[in-house]
From TrEMBL:
Pfam families: DUF1244. Residues 86-106 are annotated as: Disordered. This is SMc04008-like domain-containing protein. It comes from Albimonas donghaensis. Gene3D superfamilies: SMc04008-like. InterPro entries: SMc04008-like_domain (IPR023163), SMc04008-like_sf (IPR036810). SUPFAM superfamilies: SMc04008-like. Signal peptide: none annotated.
């Protein structure tokens, strides 16, 4: 990559990151069949992690954002509504994998 292209990308970085984040949320909306425990077991993060990171980033910028508001942004609806509509009970093997690989902050 040449210097001019790198500079242009760096200047557009925030817009690119925001667009990628919006696309990730849209993808997760399309794949509501993928449970958070599946995401945690495969990738080490889930929708709740994304909402926490979003909340932390907003607060770091001086934008007050509560936990439930951040979750509604990530889930596209109130968290409890999403759970009632999409969440299933974790199978014993999913729960065992989660316990083996649980991130320190969960």
């Amino acid at each position: 990559m040449d210097d001019a292209t790198r500079t242009e990308l760096e200047a557009a970085r925030e817009q690119l990151e925001a667009a990628a984040f919006r696309r990730l949320l849209a993808h997760l909306d399309e794949r509501s069949d993928v449970q958070n425990i599946d995401l945690m077991n495969l990738a080490g993060f889930c929708r709740n992690c994304l909402s926490r990171w979003y909340q932390e980033a907003a607060n770091a910028e001086g934008i007050p954002l509560g936990k439930e508001d951040a979750r509604a942004i990530v889930y596209g609806m109130p968290y409890e509504d999403w759970r009632a509509k999409h969440q299933t009970e974790a199978a014993p093997d999913q729960q065992a994998a989660f316990e083996r690989n649980r991130p320190k902050d969960h």
